[in-house]
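Researcher: We're teaching a course module on how sequence relates to structure. For the next exercise, students receive a sequence and then see the predicted structure as tokens, so they can try to spot secondary structure elements on their own. Here is the exercise chain.
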Amino acid sequence: MKPRIRDHARNRFDRQFGRMTGFVPGLGRPMQRLRRPGAALIRLPIAIFLILGGFLAILPFFGLWMIPLGLLLIAIDLPALQTPVAGAIIRGRRRVGYWRRRLFG
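Model: And here is the predicted structure for the students to work with:
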């Protein structure tokens, strides 16, 4: 990728990261700590746990909310995932907004 395109993708990812952490109450500060460069050894196992836990959504604690959070953490280390993850988060937020407006006026 060209540097300009990479910067745009990184900026878009950073914006979605901020919005996603603000969407889930209480996760803002821990997610910022996990985002530090030295936290990769902690970040990757947590991300894998979140993604696998998201597939166990029928259990009480686990839910589909864990999958985007896990992908968000993995995308920090894999720049190739930043664009698709940011796009998926944007689409998901738009769908949630659409259904909220439709159901609750």
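Model: If you want an answer key for the exercise: The chain has a mean pLDDT of 85. The helical segments are 3-23, 28-34, 40-54, 66-77, 79-104.
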